[in-house]
Amino acid sequence: MSITLQDPDRMPTRHRLQALFLPAAAAAGLLLLVADAAAAQAVLRPGVEARGELRSGDLRLDDNTYADLWRFSGTRGQSVRVTMRAKDFDAYLAVGYTDDSGEWHLVEADDDGAGGTDAQVNATLPQNGEYVVRANTLSEGETGGYTLSLEIGAAGAPAPQVTGGGAPPSAGTLTLGTPASGELRQGDELLEDESFADTWRFQGRAGQQIDVTLRSPDFDAYLVVGRLRNGEFSSIESDDDGAGGTDSKVSLTLDTSGEYLVRANTLFKSKTGSYTLLVAEAGGPVMVEAPATGAGGNPLVSSTPGARMPLVLGQELSGTLGAGDDKISDGSYADIWVYQGRRGETLTMIQRSRDVDSYLTFGAAENGRWTWQTADNNGAGGKDSRLVVTLERDGEYWVRPNALFSGEGRYTLVVTSDRVGGPAPVTPAGPAPSQPAPPAGPLQPGLNLTKAIKGETTAPRQVKELKKGEEMRGQLTTDDEDSGDGTYVDTWVFEGRKGQVAIVSLKSDDFRPYLLIGRAPGRDGSFTSLETDGASVGEAAKVTIELPANGRYWVRANTFDKATGKYTIKLRLR
170-281 maps to which CATH number? Predict the structure, then answer.
């Protein structure tokens, strides 16, 4: 027997679990069917691998995917891990429960958390009782065998207590301009929306303009700046994604001198992980210390805002891509190394990393504005990059280590020159730039790079509607929009609601696909990608993202290489 249910949104919206509301006339009958379907499955037991098969006739959700329902009993505060593995399809896993009124509550869901296309849910149970594990597929119509395993922490583990009134516990004191590291974990301050938080303190003065930035690779950051008023935390300003991607930033002018509180929080309940937090003077200069000069070294520091480190020839320079670095518009981090070069000089640049897939970019900077010239991905073998460039003029150049897939981690950079002799002459400084050079890097999503550097924007030549559930066909040609790095790009658009999960895939047999999804530009005309992914020829690049707001979203079909050809693109909304 096949039944169709309205599938709940697969991820929670801000501070609220998604509930499944059934029409009153049909609720009782449908809930009985759900109960029967769950009861028909064997109980999922800890430490015992369960086997199942999705096939035609199973429970069918409204996105035309099949699902099996399994059940287990749990205790409030228990930590559980459910893992689903399948060779025949892309697994999608959800854990939830049904309350006394028959409403479904999602606790946690996952797509690829177990590696590859396997799924894994890690959750802390919110109450005593029976839970339902929904073994599902990412794409409609998929069938095949799968396994499920359940791991449960110590029964009766103390449940986290919601913080009551009064001053929040202090995680530490912030020093202006110095990043602080922290971690949200079980046992931290628990807010009323069941999200964890750390509260930090710093001293401010009236009229001071500050920027507070919260970054995390593990969770969607939510930042609040406030003060104690009558012994209670009182919010002054808060932010979700102001620092790009899922990172947060608050900029404000302090109205009085004294102690301020910074709350490092998550957008969704029960999320944990590491983070960095920085309070800095708004627009303050970035101070760097020149490394020691070796033989043939050239430690010239650029006065350009945003330049980080002076380049030294022949030395192995070390860096880390991650929170606090420039975050360019495809969501990846980049460092800037500055070099004063001489016309006719040939530079060899090698970026190596065990942590990220290296992407090395290079270009000239003039009057504080950087122009992308060339880039490389795997020229040094494996995931390492290599560039050899002959300089066309005297002046300042930027070498920008980057990561291909928005990765974070350590790298090394070695730059050598064929020039023999002392350092190149210093080019006379031009007029000070009116504004810092904007971030620039590989595969700029939706911007012509030359115009972006000048602060201008470029609208796509055509925006096409991306219809839910349909496999759309497109073709990149030399007449299409130039993304700014010499690659071609098509722009698609769809309407989404906050809390919906969008799954977009891009596949081509003619080129290596690169996929970007982000909010459609507003009044300022700028586009910032929220998620990106790439793949090999013949394989699908895939992005799965919970939409942060109601509105229009752009999907950008792009390539790694300056290639053209046919492709297919598909959108699923859940």
Answer: 2.60.120.380
Locus of tokens 């919206």: 13
| Region class of 350: left (phi > 0), else alpha (psi between -120 and 50), else beta | beta
Say whether domain 4-152 belongs to CATH 3.30.420.40. no
Cα–Cα distance, 15 to 165 (Å, whole number): 19
Say which residues have a Cβ less than 8 Å from residue 348's Cβ, sequence separation at least 6: 386, 387, 388, 415, 416, 417
Say if CB 138 and CB 92 are below 8 A apart.
yes
Residues 6+ apart with CB under 8 A from 109: 10, 11, 92, 93, 94, 95, 121
**In tens digits, what is the pLDDT along the chain, a chain of 574 residues?**
232 233 333 333 322 222 322 333 333 333 333 434 433 456 888 888 888 899 988 888 877 888 888 989 888 888 889 999 999 998 999 898 887 777 778 888 888 778 778 888 888 888 888 899 999 998 888 899 999 999 887 333 344 444 555 677 888 888 887 778 888 888 788 887 778 899 999 999 998 999 898 888 788 888 999 998 888 888 888 888 777 777 888 889 999 999 999 999 988 777 888 888 888 887 543 323 333 333 333 322 223 333 357 777 777 788 888 776 776 656 677 888 888 888 888 999 999 998 888 889 898 877 656 677 888 887 888 888 999 999 988 888 889 898 876 678 888 888 888 864 333 333 333 333 333 333 322 333 333 333 333 333 345 668 889 988 888 999 999 888 876 556 788 999 999 888 888 889 999 999 888 888 888 877 656 666 777 777 778 888 888 888 888 888 999 898 877 789 999 999 988 7
Locate tokens 């009558």: which residue?
A: 230
- Give the list of residues 6+ apart from residue 428 with CB closer than 8 angstroms, or none: none
Taking the C-alpha atoms of 169, 171, 177 and 179 in order, what is their torsion angle to the nearest 10 degrees? Answer: -150
The helix/strand/coil state of 520 is coil
Q: Which residues contact 25 (CB under 8 A, 6 or more apart)?
A: none
Residue 550: φ, ψ to 5°: -70, 150
CATH tag, 309-442? 2.60.120.380
- By the 10 Å C-beta count (0-12 exposed, 13-18 middle, 19+ buried), 320 is classed as middle
CATH class of 463-573: mainly beta
- The bridge status of strand 316-321 relative to strand 409-417 is antiparallel
CA distances in angstroms from 216 to 38, 63, 153, 187, 273, listed in the order given: 37, 32, 26, 19, 8
At residue 46, the 3 state secondary structure works out as: strand
Q: What is the DSSP letter of 32?
A: H
Residue spans per domain, the chain: 4-152, 170-281, 309-442, 463-573
Neighbouring-strand partners of residue 147: 51, 85
Same fold, 4-152 and 309-442: yes
Burial bucket for residue 156 (CB in 10 Å: 0-12, 13-18, 19+): exposed
Q: Does residue 279 contact residue 176 with C-beta atoms inside 8 Å?
A: yes
Tokens at 373, concatenated: 């010239």
Q: How far is CA 14 from CA 108, 221, 407, 455, in A?
A: 14, 12, 26, 34
Distance (Å, whole) CA 461 – CA 488 = 11
